[in-house]
Structure of Redox-sensing transcriptional repressor Rex:
Amino acid sequence: MEDREISRAVIGRLPRYYRYLGELLDEGVERISSSDLSKKMHVTASQIRQDLNNFGGFGQQGYGYNVKYLHTEIGKILGLSHTHNIIIIGAGNLGQALANYGGFEKSGFILKGIFDVNPRLEGVTIRGIPIRRMDELRSFIRHHEIEIAALTIPKSKAVEVADILVEGGIQGIWNFAHTDLILPENVIVESVHLADSLLKLSYNISSYNHESEK
Ligand SMILES: NC(=O)c1ccc[n+]([C@@H]2O[C@H](COP(=O)([O-])OP(=O)(O)OC[C@H]3O[C@@H](n4cnc5c(N)ncnc54)[C@H](O)[C@@H]3O)[C@@H](O)[C@H]2O)c1
């Protein structure tokens, strides 16, 4: 792959390419043309060619894209050539839902531990993983080489817990608490705000209705 800057917009589309290519692999498809991939993904063929050309143009005239190769290469760009150990902090509704979902493991995200302050949750297991006390957190991160922590605790506690995670040496925080975390730049934060997505849906419904009333 050429060593050049890839735009954030392209990077933002990579997980979707990765997911579709993974589905094609599961279906046993070995190669696909940009026009067939375009129909499947509802993206124009020229957008696909432009996006994928960023990585040295994996497609070949008259052959199309080698699905396995492209899936592997995009996986490498997304940092999926090795597994990532993750923990969940906050075993409430959302934390338990994430812990119960086994699908992240398929992409190499291995859930190693779950933590909560509620003593009643201590020892409860989710998919065989026990919920632990917060005072075990730091040594657990070190001993189990934890890279990512999902933060599913109340907003009011997020900053304080994020600081403990930073001191513990965590590299990435998957932040579900509705607050922005300002952390040292070596700690990467990805915030997920489900409510923002819902507002976008609401906007799209109202603008669609508005258009059709014209
Ligand atoms: N539930 C949702 O659908 C949803 C959606 C989007 C965002 N969120 C956000 O995700 C967070 C969790 O939501 P929820 O519905 O699961 O809440 P919840 O109250 O069910 O669970 C929160 C858990 O965090 C634990 N906790 C509190 N302080 C802690 C601390 N200092 N250290 C470790 N654990 C601690 C609590 O004991 C509890 O088990 C909230 O910030 C919420 O705004 C939730």
Q: What stands out?
A: DSSP finds eight helices and nine strands in the chain.
